[in-house]
Amino acid sequence: MRGVSKWIDERVDIVGIRKALLDRKMPGGLTWWHTLGSATLAVFMVQAVTGIILAMYYAPSPDHAYDSIKYLESHVASGALLRGIHHWGASAMVVLVVGHSIRVFTMGAYKYPRELNWLLGVLLLAIVLGFGFTGYLLPWDQKAYWATQVGTNIAGTTPVVGALLVKLLRGGSQLGVATLTRFYALHVLLLPAMLIGIAILHLIMVIRQGIAPRTGVLEAEAPRDTESPEYHRYYKERYAASKGAGVRFWPDIVVKDAVIAAVLTVLIFLLAKFVGAGLELPADPSDSSYVPRPEWYFLPFFQLLKLVPGSMESIVAVGVPGALGLALVLLPFYDRRSARSLGKRPLARFSLFGLLGGLALLLGASMREPKPTAIAPEVGRVLNSPERAGRALFERQQCGGCHVVAGKGGAERKGDAKDAPDLTEVGLKHSPAYLHSFIEDPSRFHTGSKMPAFGPPTLSHQEIEELSRYMSSLRGKNWATAKEEFVDTFPEPIKPKEKK
Ligand code: HEC
């Protein structure tokens, strides 16, 4: 072993690399908040690994995307878990990059000499959001389709280039095959390449410049303007002094980073295992009654758009994210005061708390809104429109008086109704066609059936069809993976009465 490492060292100088990377001195007093950047990197690794495996099963076409995800969840060992990890990892990445940016902002770490690295950070933030936006479409379920429809529409409100932008994003005027392959290519090729490249630059800068020391170190007797030569001299002196008293990257900092990475990995695993990623019905471009909902971290923005009057919408849709992005990009260039701690930066304090407060309020408001596309608890997913109509009929006709569904109903289960079967998983037992005929006239299936017939004139054929669709959606909690085993036996067709 020693021989091998010596041989390599003589050629590529690993000892030198190790010294530069691991033994480098860091300023003392770094907080747990300082681990957020490396934590983002750790979660990205998780995303890369799970993403590669998911890509092996995923088929990026509207005809197969949804089925390939369903196949993964029901037939591949730990497939659902894997997808859950990737799903929750994505949310974790957004939380972490935003948290990391807030940390850097509050500690004034974007100031001289780290302006360029702040810019790279802003780019990374945008890329992570881009991952979220493109990844959301890939399952090609209702949620994916309609959220992307709205998202691309918003891009379309951009003045002058709006129409072009929509065309570029969708790969045509409609959301379809071209959109899906396009988003897939962005998600697995362009964005990862950009993220890796920029993250490497970001890290090289961190290593070359060192981490910003605690705010107090650079504040006492600091010249006011960070662009003045005095400040540059002052900075150099102070930074060198803070490093002398400091800790080493290995092992002092690495241990902290590893602890956070481990905690996060466990958390993501638990969320994936017990909450999962969720899958709605396949995308149905004709179901315009579906009310779209984007991923939670886009909700505040979505809510904001709902609040503004229609005529203002396009201004807000493009203006707010545009202004925010521009403010972030320009921040280190207009804020040149040397004060670093938030206590000494009233404007920074005001903007940060204003922004976070606003985001929290908007997020809160959007969570409190009644959810028209909420999951039907007894079905475990959002219903499509015929199913929704069927569910309403089920209530109106008081089927639940005799039947139990997911532990509810059956209040009148006495006398004749005593034999009414539990319908919680009736969709696994019978095909929609069977259910339709049965509800129409149960006595055709069982002579003397105790269930009343609901065929015309009580209900129209369309209503019975809606009811049977709803019945067919009842597949218990694990609807996505459950296997149907129909036990339908249709009665002999009724012979048409001979005409006299
Ligand atoms: C008066 C009580 C009663 C009402 C009201 C009632 N059912 Fe039934 N239902 C029964 C009984 C009893 C059976 C079993 C009868 C049989 O097998 O012939 C049954 C059977 C069924 C089955 C077949 C289940 C299976 O596993 O084979 C379905 C589906 C069904 N009902 C749906 C409905 C729907 C939908 C409504 C409302 C439109 C409804 N029922 C209203 C009593 C009722």
Which hetero ligands occur in this complex?
Answer: heme C
Question: What is the CATH topology classification name of the largest domain?
Answer: Cytochrome Bc1 Complex, Chain C
How would you spell out the order of helices and strands?
Answer: HHEHHHHHHHHEHHHHHEEHHH
Per CATH, which architecture of the largest domain? Answer: Up-down Bundle
The N- to C-terminal Cα distance equals 101 Å
For this structure, what is the CATH homologous superfamily of the largest domain?
Cytochrome Bc1 Complex, Chain C
Cross-sheet strand order for the largest sheet? 1-2
Q: How would you characterize the overall build of this protein?
A:
This protein has 500 residues and is an all-alpha fold. It has 2 domains: 2-368, Cytochrome Bc1 Complex, Chain C (Up-down Bundle); 385-473, Immunoglobulin-like. The chain has 18 helices and 4 strands. The longest helix has 33 residues, at 177-209. The strands form 2 sheets. Strands 1-2 form a two-stranded antiparallel ribbon. Strands 3-4 form a two-stranded antiparallel sheet. Heme C (HEC) is lined by residues 394, 397-399, 401-403, 416-417, 419-421, 426, 429, 435, 438-439, 442, 446, 449-452, 454, 467, 471.
Topology:
Blueprint: H1 2-12, H2 14-21, E1 25-26, H3 36-57, H4 65-75, H5 79-106, H6 115-137, H7 142-156, H8 162-170, H9 177-209, H10 229-244, E2 247-248, H11 249-274, H12 299-307, H13 310-334, H14 346-368, H15 385-396, E3 404-405, E4 408-409, H16 426-429, H17 432-440, H18 461-473
Antiparallel strand pairs: 1-2, 3-4
Helix pairs in contact: 3-5, 3-11, 4-5, 5-6, 5-11, 6-7, 6-9, 6-13, 7-8, 12-14, 15-18, 17-18
The chain binds heme C.
Heme C binds at residues 394, 397-399, 401-403, 416-417, 419-421, 426, 429, 435, 438-439, 442, 446, 449-452, 454, 467, 471.
